[in-house]
Amino acid sequence: MSGDAARRRAFFLRRLTAAMVVLFGLGTVITNGLPLLATDAARAELGHIPYPLFWFEFAMGWLYLSEGVAIAWRARWALPFAWLLAVIHSGSASGLWLWYLAGHQVEVRTLVMELFREGFWVLIALYLWRGSPPMPTDH
User: Strand, coil or helix: what is 38?
Assistant: First the structure.
């Protein structure tokens, strides 16, 4: 692959990654924001999901959006911030699993989604670390 083709491919992959992160962030804000506005009865229909988790994920969704912008702008802080998000979700997933193993009721889909989020951020961080060319600009 020539140098110009490699740069075009890297540019496309970075934009695609940024778009995926932004969509993931929007989805997280919407799916966790709506239950915060719902009545207690409507929230009860969602099942056994710890209420603070909605607030946590709602806030995290806004951080995902900022990470998507950082990736698109090739900001130097995009890589450490992606690792930070992976570590935060590792702790969140571990805490939620410990809560579940202690006998508290938690929806299985919530446990699985926390593991998915953790894996997603590890993959994004690995891509930025290994699959991305050096970032000469700092926004």
Answer: coil
Q: Where do the structural domains in the chain lie, given as residue ranges?
A: 3-130
For residue 100, CA distances in Å to 10, 65, 67, 107 come to 41, 29, 30, 9
pLDDT tens for residues 80-107?
999 999 999 999 999 999 999 999 988 8
Q: List all residues 6 or more positions away from 129 whose beta carbon is below 8 Å from its beta carbon.
A: 79
In the DSSP assignment, the letter for residue 45 is T
Indicate left, alpha or beta for 38 from its phi (over 0: left) and psi (-120 to 50: alpha).
beta
Average pLDDT of the residues in 44-71 = 90
Asked whether residue 54 carries a pLDDT value surpassing 90, the answer given is: no
- Alpha-carbon Rg of the chain, whole angstroms? 17
> pTM value?
0.85
Longest Cα separation, the chain:
60
Tokens (6 digits) for 107: 């929806």
